[in-house]
Design goal:
This protein is mostly beta strands. It is 0% helix and 49% strand. It is globular and about 40 Å long.
Length: 124
């Protein structure tokens, strides 16, 4: 599985960005996709995940109501719409694939494949 994250950039606080994660190499509907982020000097943390069919989503508390994860299985792509961005959202954002047949996890260790990351910078 290859994952390509894109869509990062510089935005002012209160603004929006949409990240994309394009996948290839395996049946896209067979794995959960998660978004994680890592700020300088901090550990990688879970942001959101979406089920194989796209009908179930999971979010960490501090992005609920601001971020929306979705997937287009026809395009083998997962999106992370980020609204009301805050300076503390500044980080490198990574998408990852969990190939286990059931369940989901917010632990990076659970995920089998990772994209290269895309930098999001939110200015105050």
């Amino acid at each position: 599985v290859q994952l390509q994250a894109s869509g990062g950039g510089l935005v002012q606080a209160g603004g929006s960005l949409r990240l994309s994660c394009a996948a290839s190499g395996r049946d896209f509907t067979s794995y959960v996709i998660g978004w994680f982020r890592q700020a300088p000097g901090k550990e990688r943390e879970f942001v959101a995940a979406i089920s194989r069919g796209g009908g179930i989503t999971f979010y960490v508390d501090f992005v609920k109501g601001r971020f929306t994860i979705s997937r287009d299985n026809a395009k083998d792509t997962v999106y992370l719409q980020m609204n009301s961005l805050k300076p503390e959202d500044t980080a490198v954002y990574y998408c990852a694939a969990d190939l286990r047949p059931t369940g989901y996890s917010d632990s990076p260790a659970r995920y089998d494949y990772w994209g290269q990351g895309t930098l999001v910078t939110v200015s105050s």
